[in-house]
Amino acid sequence: MIKISKYPLETNRLILRSWQLDDVDDFFEYASVDGVGEMAGWPHHVDISTSLMVLKNFIVQDNVYAIEEKTSNKVIGSFGIHKSWASKDEELKVIEIGYVLAKSHWGQGFIPEVVEEIIRACFEKWNLDAVSVSHFDGNEQSKRVIEKSGFKYVDTTDTTLEQLDDKKVILHRYLMYK
Q1: Rounded-to-integer distance, Cα 93 and Cα 126, Å
Q2: Cβ neighbours for 43, distance < 8 A, ≥ 6 positions apart
Q3: Alpha helix positions (H), 7-139
Q4: Tens digits of per-residue pLDDT, 79-99?
Q5: Where are the beta strands (DSSP E) in 8-87?
Q6: What is the tens place of the pLDDT at every residue in 95-132?
Q7: Are the C-beta atoms of residues 145 and 111 closer than 8 Å to each other?
Q8: CA-CA distance, 128 to 131, in Å (whole number)?
Q9: Sign (positive or negative) of CA dihedral 18, 21, 24, 26
């Protein structure tokens, strides 16, 4: 699996990097807002101890990374790199990406900027064959980012979100080949 800690990324406005324990206040600030985590499949945080526990897990697993805004040096979101549903074909080198952004930063083009840089790194730096991404039914913001980024729709499936009390959701899946 790709490790951003070994390959930090940068855009004009953002630094995509590994989490640090002192990011916990920024993390809690956006993760505690109702509706932010739920768009990504997890409940919003009700206390900072939850954010600290999740953050420690991010650091150990090294597959979810911070999105830091350069002008404020503040973490405003995160993105993950995970094993893809499309990696059933053992010949194909593919990862799945996911992202979440502070509600205060929605609509400012940050996530398209992140996705563009991750796609570039996947194909140019890490020599992957494909990148997959998905969104829940009704998440029109993610759908627009995915389609504008050039991903092609593959299918729709039902899934259960354990972290949201086994909520049943419809998931739309997309893929981009090198």
Answers
A1: 10
A2: 37, 163, 164
A3: 24-31, 48-61, 110-120
A4: 999 888 887 766 788 999 999
A5: 9-10, 14-17, 64-69, 74-83
A6: 999 999 999 999 999 999 999 999 999 999 889 999 99
A7: yes
A8: 8
A9: negative
